[in-house]
Amino acid sequence: MLDRLNPTDGNAATVRYTAADFQVLVPGTHVLCAITGKAIPLDELKYWNWQRQEAYTDAQASLAAEQAAGNLA
């Protein structure tokens, strides 16, 4: 389903991430991965960083974000 969403379709949600959950501030169908730029349907969103307020498509993208932030060797 990720590839079927067009990130430019105007349906991106605005989300506030917390340590354990997220809040939808502006309704939409998806958010964008901070690493890949791919659309992530809200019902499939599992990876984010609440301190940087970023969403990730999967664990690999989350790891790449941590490495880029200098948090991992």
Offer a concise description of the structure.
This protein is an alpha+beta fold and 73 residues long. It has one helix and six strands. The strands form three sheets. Strands 1-2 form a two-stranded antiparallel ribbon.
Return Rg in Å.
12 Å
- Mean pLDDT, to the nearest integer, reads 90
Please give the largest β-sheet. 2 strands, antiparallel
Unreliable stretches, pLDDT < 50, 5 or more residues? 1-5
SSE string = EEEEEEH
Instruction: Name the helicity range.
Output: 10-25%
Strand content: 25-35%
Number of domains: 1
Read across the widest sheet, the strand sequence of neighbours is: 1-2
SS class? alpha+beta
Number of strands: 6
Discrete helix count:
1
Gap from first CA to last CA:
33 Å
Shape, per Cα inertia axes = globular
Structural write-up:
This protein is α+β, with helices and mostly antiparallel strands and 73 residues long. It has one domain. Helix content is 14%, strand content 29%. It is built from one helix and six strands, in the order E-E-E-E-E-E-H. A hairpin with a 4-residue loop joins strand 5 and strand 6. The N terminus is likely disordered.
What is the fold's blueprint, element by element?
Elements: E1 14-17, E2 22-26, E3 30-32, E4 39-41, E5 47-49, E6 54-56, H1 59-68
Antiparallel strand pairs: 1-2, 3-4, 5-6
Please describe the structure with a list of short key phrases separated by commas or semicolons.
73 residues; alpha+beta; two-stranded antiparallel sheet; 1 helix; 6 strands; 14% helix; globular; disordered N terminus
